[in-house]
TrEMBL record:
It comes from Microbaculum marinum. It is an enzyme of class 4 (lyase). One of its GO terms (cellular component) is cytosol. Belongs to the aldolase class II family. AraD/FucA subfamily. One of its GO terms (molecular function) is aldehyde-lyase activity. The keyword Lyase applies. Residues 9-188 form the Class II aldolase/adducin N-terminal domain. Catalyzes the decarboxylation of 3-oxo-tetronate 4-phosphate to dihydroxyacetone phosphate (DHAP) and CO(2). The keyword Lyase applies. InterPro entries: Aldolase_class_II_sugar_metab, Aldolase_II/adducin_N, Aldolase_II/adducin_N_sf, OtnC. It catalyses: 3-dehydro-4-O-phospho-D-erythronate + H(+) = dihydroxyacetone phosphate + CO2; 3-dehydro-4-O-phospho-L-erythronate + H(+) = dihydroxyacetone phosphate + CO2. Its EC number is 4.1.1.104. This is 3-oxo-tetronate 4-phosphate decarboxylase. Keywords: Carbohydrate metabolism, Lyase, Metal-binding, Zinc. The gene is otnC.
Amino acid sequence: MSEETRARDALVETGRSLFGRGLTFGSTGNLSLRLGDGSWLMTPTNVSLGDLDPARLSKLDGDGRHVSGDKPTKESFLHIAMYRERPDAGAVVHLHSTHSVAVSALADIDPDDVLPPITAYYVMRVGRLPLVPYFPPGDPDLAGAVGKLASKHHAVLLANHGPVVAGSSLAAATYATEELEETARLFLLLQGRAVRTLTEDQVAELRKRFG
Ligand SMILES: O=C(O)[C@@H](O)C(=O)COP(=O)(O)O
Ligand SMILES: [Zn+2]
């Protein structure tokens, strides 16, 4: 099986799994994957991640030109902005996962570091999560704002919208997005309680061990 066929199947399977577990809804969310020759496969615009067709995925060349398949996600520029700043990124996941979206709409969160280090796994998979100011979906300024943060952050949270997460592979990007969503859920569950988060030393130790 060719690299591209495997990649197409992986996008379809990942989309089905995320949608089936309620991690995004309707036709929200988009996925992309970088192929070895520098081109990209992306989910088409206005499709359910639960119902992707491998033959209709959008293909873009290394310059971001749409070369085959259905019209790409309106966030293709945002995905490309992430890849351009992160040469090691192999995939990008964007979802409207409920708890992450809820946190992205809270008035009093720290835009430089949205979620506290509640667990080691969050620190290992996500790290420091900045909030990207609100822009309408698909707005070129949204892609620009993500691009500005992307060299330092593989995961960002779009205000009143949802997470965007890059990873070395589609699995890595997906695991990190799921970890972000679960931590957002824990954060909301713990509202109003005195919380013992990891200390700065504990976070530094995790960064040293797990990069
Ligand atoms: O929120 C939006 O409109 C987009 O960011 C999105 O999640 C789905 O858009 P398409 O990928 O263009 O369907
Ligand atoms: Zn979206």
